Amino acid sequence: MEINIETNLFGKEIFIPDTVVNSWIVLIILTIFALIVNNKIKKASTDEKPSAFLNVVEVLVEKVDGLVKSTMGPDKIFFAPYILTLVMFLLIANLFGLVGFTPPTSDYSVTFTLALMTFFLTQYYSFKTSGFLGYFKNFTEPMAFLTPLNILGELANPISLSFRLFGNILSGVIIMGLLYSALGYLAPIFTPILHAYFDVFSGVLQTFIFSMLTMIFIGGAMD
Which positions, given as ranges, span the membrane (predicted)? Predict the structure, then answer.
């Protein structure tokens, strides 16, 4: 299912692809989910057994908190809300193919934007931790003549991070599209197992990898 938006603004035609529209849908889903969780937490009583919904949310928060502590360190637990938001966005976006929508992460503009967020957070905390001179000194280590390579390596991080996620999700979309075209009415018989791999397994795996690399990059910059 494709939802493209075409409009005119100041005499210029603007085309918004379905992947960007789907990313907005994911954000709306996450916003509604956050409002529901907030409302249920406010109404919850400490004297009563929490609902199954709040138990699931609590387990999810605890798992992400534990992952942040083990990867970045206990002193960086304040990153947990951002990592949890990133995990939920990527997980829903990667699994969008299961409901007939184009996954937002199959668009490079989406994955590159997420990678840029990681890149700028890494540079900000590196600058904040090391100071002005220390930040630039980091590029000269272990030897000064390696500075150009260190700079290129730092600039390559968002590119490799974004291409890894984009390539894996897009390849799954292309393969499933070709199979549906080739099999026709027989597709529902043979494609479920492939959806389990390309959408569920690959989607969850890429969510984990992107989130882990984000924590490693930012945590390494702060250390």
Answer: 20-37, 79-102, 108-127, 165-190, 196-218
